[in-house]
Write a structure and sequence with these properties.
The complex is a heterodimer of chains A (about 120) and B (about 110).
Chain A: E1 3-7, E2 10-12, E3 18-25, E4 33-39, E5 45-51, E6 58-60, E7 68-73, E8 78-83, E9 92-99, E10 109-110, E11 114-118
Chain B: E1 9-12, E2 18-23, E3 33-37, E4 44-47, E5 61-66, E6 69-74, E7 83-91, E8 96-99, E9 103-107
Parallel strand pairs in B: 1-9
Antiparallel strand pairs in B: 2-6, 3-4, 3-7, 5-6, 7-8, 7-9
Classes of the chains: A mainly beta (about 120), B mainly beta (about 110).
Chain lengths: ~120, ~110
């Protein structure tokens, strides 16, 4: 059974930092591109960032560029999102997701999400 | 940036067919994916590459894509199909992933 399990969410003050983790099992981790997708409660899905199988390529939505960093450790089957200079509008449930290739595939696997709340 | 437009809501009686649309400029030239998200749960991939179904997805779900509109068709709607449905494409100009705003399907 494929499992993606996020952790690291919580309450953080504006301007603060947080690191999210996503632990994978049941898949050949290094074969997949990985993403973070977020969702403000009650609203739609917003893609945040992608990272290639070997970690050599990353890309971000404009609103988080230069503030968030996506990374992965294939030896630990883990994905990370380091978030800094957090803003109230970053408050959301953050999902990790896996897909085999860009442009013609979808997100095959999703975690259950972890809630990040940015508030003073 | 590329924009996908979905009607916010759709209501369908049980046993009928639900057609959910996703509009975008020349979307017919892109690969469209569809997801179902039930309340409190993670999204589930229903359709990829316009019309392909992952294993385990019922044949009641089908997809099409042409011109400026992609469509997810759900046949013989059941109460358990109540959920939010999202379309998704890749913007090949920016390598960004784009989601539509979602359609909330209500089964009457």
């Amino acid at each position: 059974e494929v499992q993606l399990v996020e952790s690291g969410g919580g309450l953080v003050q504006p301007g603060g930092s947080l690191r999210l983790s996503c632990a994978a099992s049941g898949i050949t981790f290094r074969d997949f591109w990985l993403s973070w997708v977020r969702q403000v409660p009650g609203e739609g899905l917003e893609w945040v960032a992608n990272i290639k199988q070997d970690g050599t390529e990353t890309i971000y939505v404009d609103s988080v560029k230069d503030r968030f960093t996506i990374s992965r450790d294939n030896a630990k089957n883990s994905l990370y999102l380091h978030m800094s200079s957090l803003r109230a509008e970053d408050t959301a449930v953050y999902f990790c997701a896996a897909f085999p290739r860009p442009y013609s595939s979808g997100f095959d696997y999703w975690g259950h999400g972890t809630l990040v709340t940015v508030s003073s | 940036s590329y924009v996908l437009t979905q009607p916010p809501s759709l209501s369908v009686a049980p046993g009928k067919t639900a057609r959910m649309t996703c509009g975008g400029d020349s979307i017919g030239t892109k690969s469209v994916q569809w997801y179902q998200q039930r309340p409190g749960q993670a999204p589930v991939l229903l359709i990829y590459y316009d019309s392909d179904r992952p294993s385990g997805i019922p044949e009641r779900f089908s997809g099409s894509n042409s011109g400026n509109t992609a469509t997810l068709t759900l046949s013989r709607v059941e109460a358990g199909d109540e959920a939010d449905y999202y379309c998704q494409v890749w913007d090949v100009n920016t390598d960004h992933v784009i989601f539509g705003g979602g359609t909330k399907l209500t089964v009457l």
